[in-house]
DUF7992 domain-containing protein (Halopenitus malekzadehii), 140 residues
Amino acid sequence: MPREFEWQEETLGAEDFYRGDIEDLLQDGAWQEGFNEWVEYTTLDEEHVDSINDQRLFQAFDFYWDPSEDRLRFDAPRVPDEWQQEHPIESRDSITRSLIAGELADLGHAVLEVLEGYLDRNDEDSDYGWGADTYGTRDE
């Protein structure tokens, strides 16, 4: 279940939050497009990105459909308290867990924007298969 999600009557029965469908879109290119955009402006260097990858934080993102707000959302992974001890890097004095957390949130927003673009294309008869014809209404 998403981290900051509150169950409401209309969310009962929607436990998967369309994660499988969103995962398909991510694999179809949304993740790579968002990641490439993020890499262009992130303040993290290659060593930091490698360290985050080693920690498997990129794989820990959770993208889902929030039925109570009828929109896509994401939870960025939490940076472990012991991150700097487990993954020392030369420039770690200049980087903090909060900076990394902020950069991961920026990555999540970049990928979310790409996902929204994929979904918007569905409104123009795209092949992504996300919409009322596939899922009907969300009144569960």
